[in-house]
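> forwarded from #structure-qc
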């Protein structure tokens, strides 16, 4: 009898250890590395050697073609590889890079990647992303299956304004104008001269005919990962079409409340105003809401599509200068 009890206890302990190991392994896979460069986004499970090696193969290709590749974390601790390091990068340096990037992931740090092709410098990023808790996303029962974030980017509750982003930029900043905008050239007076990305008109230089934000330029992707993105004009319209919308005050903040006509779930969008220069506008009185879509104004590419509102009206057909700092509300597929 005692032997049976001991065996049972031992078996239970083994099963418990196995379950703990499985949980630890799942936790290790909880964060992925997402690498975005040019128009391609790749998600890599950092603990999956095959996927990680494929990612490093891509960097190796850049180096072999003469590009200089630099990895640096949020604290600007850097690791570099260039064409003369291809052999070491494929062996010793590759293992060093793998250990280093995993250490950054374990510490929850962002790893940025810059490579210089000889004709220009391109910026990508590999960053650790934790899946957003389900409570952070609201299912409005939309036909597309799109879920909407409960809060603006940079906010911790629905009534908080969050951060402000120029269209196509992934970080907030102190001053919002053409001189500080990443995808243009401007004169000393702050007048727009050319657009260097997302351009459909020869009036602003050579067109590239890009009309939807690419992954590396989408603040929602950069910050949330996990399939999130800035909504298109069409996704904004779907939300409007399947909601009743009212002007209201939530926790002392004015804004628009969307209530799904399908399942009754709700979203609150604060009237957070917008930033131009170093000032915040549109928050006096009742306030106004200014939210980016990921869609370019193809008729005038110095503008992008935006969803705006006040206490009287809503407008999903507006066009706003890309230099302005607007709020962003993320979406993702269910």
């Amino acid at each position: 009898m005692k032997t049976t009890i001991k065996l049972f206890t031992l078996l239970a302990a083994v099963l418990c250890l196995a379950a703990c190991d499985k949980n630890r392994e799942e936790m290790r896979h909880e964060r992925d590395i997402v690498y975005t460069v040019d128009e391609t986004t790749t998600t890599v499970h950092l603990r999956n050697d095959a996927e990680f090696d494929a990612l490093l193969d891509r960097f190796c290709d850049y180096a072999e073609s003469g590009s200089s590749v630099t990895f640096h974390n949020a604290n600007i601790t850097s690791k570099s590889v260039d064409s003369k390091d291809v052999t070491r990068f494929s062996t010793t340096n590759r293992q060093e890079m793998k250990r280093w990037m995993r250490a950054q992931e374990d510490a929850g740090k962002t790893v940025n990647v810059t490579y210089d092709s000889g004709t220009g410098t391109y910026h990508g990023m590999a960053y650790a992303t934790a899946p957003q808790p389900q409570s952070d996303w609201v299912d409005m029962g939309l036909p597309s299956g799109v879920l909407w974030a409960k809060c603006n980017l940079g906010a911790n509750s629905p009534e908080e304004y969050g951060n402000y982003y120029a269209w196509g930029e992934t970080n907030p900043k102190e001053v919002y104008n053409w001189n500080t905008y990443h995808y243009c050239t401007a004169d000393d007076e702050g007048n727009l001269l050319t657009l260097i990305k997302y351009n459909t008109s020869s009036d602003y230089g050579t067109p590239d005919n890009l009309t939807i934000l690419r992954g590396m330029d989408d603040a929602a992707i950069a910050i949330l990962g996990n399939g999130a993105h800035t909504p298109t004009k069409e996704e904004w319209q779907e939300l409007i079409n399947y909601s009743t919308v009212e002007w209201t005050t939530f926790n002392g903040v004015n804004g628009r409340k969307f209530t799904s006509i399908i399942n009754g779930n709700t979203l609150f969008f604060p009237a957070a105003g917008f930033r131009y220069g170093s000032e915040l506008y549109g928050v006096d009185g009742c306030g106004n809401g200014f939210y980016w879509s990921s869609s370019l104004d193809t008729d005038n590419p110095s503008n992008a599509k935006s969803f705006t509102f006040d206490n009287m009206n809503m407008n999903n057909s507006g066009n706003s200068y890309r230099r302005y700092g607007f709020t962003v509300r993320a979406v993702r597929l269910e």
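QC bot note: Residues 32 and 214 are 20 Å apart (CA to CA). The longest helix spans residues 2-28.
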